[in-house]
Amino acid sequence: MADNKSLIVIELENEDSIPRVFYEGEEINRKVRILFEWETKTDKPGKMNLEVKHYGESISDFKTIKLSKNDDSICPECGFDLDTKTWIADKKVVFEEHKCKNCGYKRHNDVSER
Ligand SMILES: [Zn+2]
Fold first, then answer.
1. Dmax of the chain from CA atoms?
2. Of 16, 50, 55, 69, which is most buried with the most CB atoms under 10 A?
3. For residue range 38-65, what is the model confidence (pLDDT) as tens digits?
């Protein structure tokens, strides 16, 4: 049963059945790929990736539904947790560095001018 208020509903009756997918209450037919990933390492959702590939009315009408949400604490390159270093002056955060131990991705937030 699909709840019309849900963004996505994926139903799988058993290991051999074709999943039923409802996107914003509407059933998606002629599916060729369904990917759903959700991950957290904290008390908040960290990352969510959804991809549904399907055909429309004809074989030339190929569509992809793609949604993703990634938390700041996760590396945008590889999905590994980012280490965050914070410099504080006068009780204010002046500089933040996010670094990935896995792939070396680095991002700085210079917040001193705020
Ligand atoms: Zn990384």
1. 63
2. 50
3. 887 767 667 788 999 999 888 888 999 8
